[in-house]
Write a structure and sequence with these properties.
single chain, alpha+beta, three-stranded antiparallel beta sheet, 2 helices, about 20% strand
């Protein structure tokens, strides 16, 4: 059973991204690094990224869909 728990847990090196998909432009989205639960470390973001993150959150349902947590394969 302990082996299953170790295999089922994501590795510490695995990274995730919080993706806000545009409701109007299929290929457009705002993406931010996050943990597996979707928490974004605001202190790690640049000022511009932080402003974009707050904007995307403010316009959920108007310009962007509810965010989704996805594995970040670009960090591999």
């Amino acid at each position: 059973m302990d082996a299953c728990l170790a295999e089922c847990r994501p590795s510490a090196a695995q990274r995730f991204m919080l993706r806000f998909q545009s409701l109007f432009h299929q290929g457009r989205a705002m993406v931010f690094p996050c943990d597996a639960q979707g928490r974004v470390d605001l202190d790690a973001l640049s000022e511009r990224a932080r402003e974009n993150y707050f904007y995307a959150r403010a316009v959920i349902g108007f310009e962007y869909a509810e965010p989704t947590v996805q594995p970040d394969y670009s960090a591999a």
